[in-house]
Amino acid sequence: MKLTLIVLLLAIFSPLFAQQKANDALLLDLYQNQKYLEAAQYLRSTYTEPVTDLKILSRLAYTYQMAGKLPDAEAYYQRILDKDSLNIPVMLNLANINLKRENDAKAIGYFQKVITLDSNNFMVYKQLGRLYMEQYNIPLQMRYLQRANTLNPENDEVAADLSSTLISLKQYKTAQKILAKALAADSLNLLLLRTMMRLNFELKKYAATIQTGEQIINLGDVSYPVVSKAAEAYFMLKNYQCCIETFALLPELYQSEASYYFTAESYKALKNNQMAINFFVKTLHQCISENTSLYYSEMADTYNEMHQVKTAVNTYQKSLFFKETGMIYYTLANLYDTSLKDKKNALKYYKKYIDSKPPAKEQEYIDYVQSRITELRK
Fold this sequence. Notes:
The structure is a single chain. By secondary structure, the protein is mainly alpha-helical. The protein has 22 helices and no strands. The termini are far apart.
């Protein structure tokens, strides 16, 4: 009987215990000090399971979300959605949680549910457009970005994303209209100006490219895409000195094969041949990988293993063209000496190996080479 009475009392009073109120002052203090995990743990200890009140579930979900405990937050939001399947804020929170966890497919699913309930939700169309952009799904990307742009034509991110896609599709007139409308609302927006500069460059409107480029540079953006387009536009208009000066805005670290090439061609056009040669050399250094010598060396090793000695020798020599190393000299000398019986070239490359001043750790090779040089000179 006693046991039955206890069970009965628990059944009656447990819902009351579950509905006890949290200390709002304590929670506010925890929130203000960004102690979200402590707040979540406090809430969980205050409201014992099973929690059915939607407001309490919402508070738990939010707190766990702010604490970065995304699986817990998702679980609580899902419990709310199970009870209220048309709750748009909960769907948005679930979508954003899945975005943070890089589960884009689930996020898209929630966003699409939202727009079936709210066909004018600009932020959701914008987010869907960007998600499909990342997936290179141009038809869906265009559909959602166009809808977002219709809802808010002045939004810079949507206007830039949509017009960039249109430029790629060579739909220049439409891209120009979208950018013009957005720029009318914010004429100093760098995101929009960069996209307009790209459009002008694509259309070969070089004077307009330069004008926009100078505006962007004056606003403090001297990034490679901006500087290079402005400089190349100067080159196309045969203003070679301005091309040189514009490319010079780039630090050495950000110079490229293209920047050196156009600079070289500009100096050549100005009859400054020595500077042209200097920049053509820099162009060559940029377009040749530092690993080219290594690649040829590895290929030569492979030919050697296949007993294709002459091909191996030729390939080692190509490796030396890109970078001279002592061990390649040694390998070539050894091949000429032992496989091809070519004493003249063997001696030549043994000497080059010694002249390369090999490190002390190669003393065994040094001793061998010196003995072979003595032998071959006889």
